[in-house]
């Protein structure tokens, strides 16, 4: 369920039991999309645990020996409804070096027995470092590892902090899987010859948490429960901030776990469906500053490790499931409005939301060392509302639905810092299309959704461009899902899935230009028989092609698995041509450009 909430699963389960006359698909599709896989193999002590993994490029490491230390070792047993697990964090003191060119976060975990997938978050000083989902265990045990480049959080990591981890797990006589977790941070010292590189990769000077101050029995994320719910956080920034970038983390659960499959409300009402989450298949996370929309996020459709058919995700997990993408919104044009030393409010809401979305953010700030107070002004701000079109045609439970949405948000503002009078222009362009077919009296669903999420930032001094970035993201999901009621409490289903995460980035500063592209596509096919929400038999196969080209670093992987076994795995980590990235000299002054580049060079997929 990738959720901390147990009761919902129970209620869906009861619905399944209490209303056997309805077709199972129309009754409660979400329950069917996350059945529990019961491993019936007898645990043999000699069987080694299965290694689960997400296909992604390795983090490029400098050629230095890291100073590593274990920050937290914890067994997540019955943690549901309890506060996060806390640990004291201190910067590495045992390292000869005091400067690091790369910092890597590592989550290693094992689990054995029976358990659901659980969403979890890791925060340092309230700043979210990782949003992730656990792998689902087997009777014979599993092991998995998540590595994330956290160099972006450098300034935070150089101070004493409190680390918080929330992973709401439930242990009963049936659900026996305890998650045994180690969190290690690896600090790679900077080489002398690295100096230009580290200046070039300049992370923010200060990162403010835009998360919940006092998590009582939950994570530090805000919980957005419906379409009118707005979660607010008050913050104050130093008056010499010359750049502000908001990094937003989102995950969706329960009624909105499969938001892109949710039918329209008129379809649900016309068919008297209960237990089917609605509000249609479009969702948008909206970020506001003092009530004005500053940006939006049209999220990638992460499928957690127990979703659709759990057999698809063993051992290759779904794109983003072990390291959910975070999304950047450039706030710099609005700085003029918030450099007054007073408190301001960031707000989060989700268009069409159903219970529940977990959202929070980190505000990355770059400070002007040569100025104590910067002035600025927002010159222009356009936030056109969503242009929505829904064409539906249904008779009973059969029908077709086409939903299209587009939107643009842009802002321009100037700032006078010690670098000069810089004007920053920020644009987000979005388009969305979702075609949904319901057939077979609601037992067949075919969804084909594509999101284009383009943005660009440009900073200029009157005579020339300081830096510019442009990114084009394309998120695709295709799901064919057909269920057959076997009449004896068993449903049989067939699944065909494609997930695509493509991204092109370009950055320019003066004569320097750097580009990167990622094409990451998973195809998966499965079938399963489900009785009382338990998978009694089935098969899952997954093929993935991952192709990253970062100019001077490339990574290619073509891999396939079926029924827990890797069928083929081809890896290449060389570019098939001469590197063509050139960053001109003398650009290191322009920290906004460099910080942006550092971010893009990280292992981050957003
Ligand atoms: C974590 O697991 C990975 C993959 O199994 C392994 O390479 C790494 O050494 C482990 N890290 C630690 C600190 O044990
Ligand atoms: C965590 O670290 C301890 C001590 O190094 C080790 O014994 C244990 O196997 C590790 N667990 C995981 C899940 O990596
Ligand atoms: C950070 O924590 C360590 C260990 O608790 C302590 O010795 C040190 O004084 C702290 N540093 C600061 C700046 O508070
Ligand atoms: C939406 O959620 C908020 C926050 O939980 C709640 O106060 C409000 O009553 C809900 N609105 C509706 C229409 O359910
Ligand atoms: C839905 O319920 C209403 C009122 O009970 C009933 O008139 C209608 O026939 C039902 N529609 C379907 C499709 O079952
Ligand atoms: C900075 O440039 C903007 C746009 O050209 C202009 O409107 C503004 O007055 C300038 N500010 C200062 C302090 O010169
Ligand atoms: C985004 O950029 C791509 C590639 O340039 C383009 O094909 C697409 O139409 C753009 N979409 C939007 C919404 O701007
Ligand atoms: C829905 O489509 C199926 C075939 O996919 C057909 O057998 C059934 O009669 C249709 N139902 C209605 C209400 O038209
Ligand atoms: C956004 O759309 C506008 C208007 O179509 C276009 O001029 C601009 O180049 C687009 N920007 C991006 C980043 O897609
Ligand atoms: C249910 O019925 C199907 C087909 O009629 C059969 O293949 C399956 O074994 C049955 N399952 C159970 C659990 O009885
Ligand atoms: C399922 O996927 C396979 C391979 O991707 C494809 O050949 C097949 O046509 C798909 N079937 C359906 C019903 O979409
Ligand atoms: C999957 O593999 C197991 C052995 O690991 C085997 O017993 C089972 O028959 C296989 N399932 C299918 C559908 O091939």
Uncertain residue ranges: 3-27, 194-201, 579-606
Query: Are any ligands bound, and if so which?
Result: 2-acetamido-2-deoxy-beta-D-glucopyranose
Instruction: Provide the number of structural domains.
Output: 1
- Provide a count of the helices: 8
Shape verdict: globular
- List the quaternary state of the chains: single chain
Radius of gyration: 24 Å
DSSP E strands, number: 30
Largest sheet: 12 strands, mixed
Q: Could you give the distance between the termini?
A: 23 Å
Helix amount, in percent?
under 10%
Mean model confidence by pLDDT = 88
Report strand %.
Answer: over 45%
Helix/strand/pairing class, anyone?
mainly beta
What's this model, at a glance?
This protein is mainly β and 606 residues long. It has 8 helices and 30 strands. It has helices spanning 7-18, 24-27, 29-32, 154-157, 195-200, 265-270, 335-338, 591-601; strands at residues 36-37, 50-52, 67-76, 85-89, 100-111, 119-124, 127-133, 142-149, 161-167, 179-189, 206-210, 222-224, 231-235, 241-252, 284-289, 292-297, 326-330, 344-351, 357-367, 375-383, 387-395, 398-417, 420-439, 444-461, 464-485, 490-509, 512-531, 534-549, 554-562, 565-572.
């Amino acid at each position: 369920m990738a959720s901390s909430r147990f009761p919902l699963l129970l209620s869906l389960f009861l619905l399944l039991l209490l209303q056997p006359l309805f077709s199972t698909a129309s009754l409660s599709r979400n329950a069917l999309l996350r059945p529990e896989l019961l491993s019936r193999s007898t645990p043999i002590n000699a069987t080694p645990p299965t290694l689960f993994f997400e296909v992604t490029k390795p983090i490029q490491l400098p050629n230095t020996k890291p100073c590593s230390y274990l920050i937290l070792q914890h067994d997540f047993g019955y943690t549901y409804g309890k506060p996060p697990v806390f640990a004291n964090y201190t910067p590495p003191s045992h390292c000869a070096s005091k400067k690091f060119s790369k910092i890597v976060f590592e989550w290693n975990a094992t689990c054995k027995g029976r358990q659901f997938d659980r969403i979890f978050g890791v925060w340092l000083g309230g700043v979210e470092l990782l949003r992730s989902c656990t792998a689902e265990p087997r009777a014979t045990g599993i092991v998995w590892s998540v590595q994330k480049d956290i160099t972006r959080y450098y300034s935070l990591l150089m101070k004493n902090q409190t680390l918080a981890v929330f992973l709401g797990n439930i242990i009963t006589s049936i659900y026996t899987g305890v998650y045994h977790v180690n969190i290690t941070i690896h600090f790679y010292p900077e080489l002398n010859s690295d100096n230009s590189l580290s200046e070039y990769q300049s992370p923010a000077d200060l990162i403010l948490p835009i998360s919940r101050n006092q998590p009582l029995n939950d994570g530090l994320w805000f919980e957005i429960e419906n379409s009118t719910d707005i979660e607010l956080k008050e913050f104050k920034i130093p008056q010499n901030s010359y750049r502000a970038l908001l990094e937003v983390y989102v995950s969706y659960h329960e009624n909105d776990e499969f938001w892109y499959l949710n039918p329209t409300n008129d379809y649900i009402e016309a068919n008297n469906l209960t237990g089917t989450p609605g509000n249609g298949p479009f969702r948008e996370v909206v970020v506001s500053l003092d009530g004005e929309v500053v940006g939006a996020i049209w999220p990638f459709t992460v499928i957690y490790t127990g979703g659709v058919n759990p057999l698809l995700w063993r051992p290759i997990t779904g794109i983003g499931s072990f390291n959910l993408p975070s999304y950047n919104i450039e706030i710099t044009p609005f700085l003029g409005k918030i450099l007054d030393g007073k408190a301001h409010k960031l707000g989060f809401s989700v268009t069409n939301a159903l219970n529940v979305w977990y959202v929070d953010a980190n505000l990355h700030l770059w400070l002007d060392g040569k100025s104590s107070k910067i002035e600025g002004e927002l010159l222009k701000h356009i936030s056109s509302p969503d242009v929505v079109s829904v064409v539906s045609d249904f008779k009973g439970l059969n029908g077709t639905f086409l939903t299209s949405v587009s939107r643009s948000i842009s802002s321009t503002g100037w700032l006078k810092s010690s670098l000069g009078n810089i004007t920053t222009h920020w644009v987000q362009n979005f388009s969305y299309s979702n075609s949904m077919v319901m057939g077979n009296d609601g037992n067949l669903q075919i969804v084909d959704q594509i999101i284009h999420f383009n943005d660009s930032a440009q900073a200029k001094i009157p005579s020339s461009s300081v830096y510019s970035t442009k990114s084009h993201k394309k998120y695709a999901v295709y799901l064919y899902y057909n269920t057959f009621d076997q009449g004896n409490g068993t449903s049989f289903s067939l699944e065909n899935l494609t997930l695509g995460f493509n991204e092109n980035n370009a950055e320019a500063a003066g004569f320097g230009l750097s580009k990167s592209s990622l094409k990451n596509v998973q195809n998966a096919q499965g079938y399963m028989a489900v009785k009382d929400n338990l998978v009694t038999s089935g098969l899952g196969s997954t093929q993935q092609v991952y192709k990253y080209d970062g100019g001077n670093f490339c990574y290619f992987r073509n891999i396939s698995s079926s029924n827990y076994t890797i069928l083929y795995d081809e890896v290449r980590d060389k570019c098939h041509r001469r590197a063509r990235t050139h960053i001109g000299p003398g650009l290191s002054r322009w920290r906004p450009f460099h910080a942006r580049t550092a971010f893009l060079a990280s292992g981050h997929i957003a």
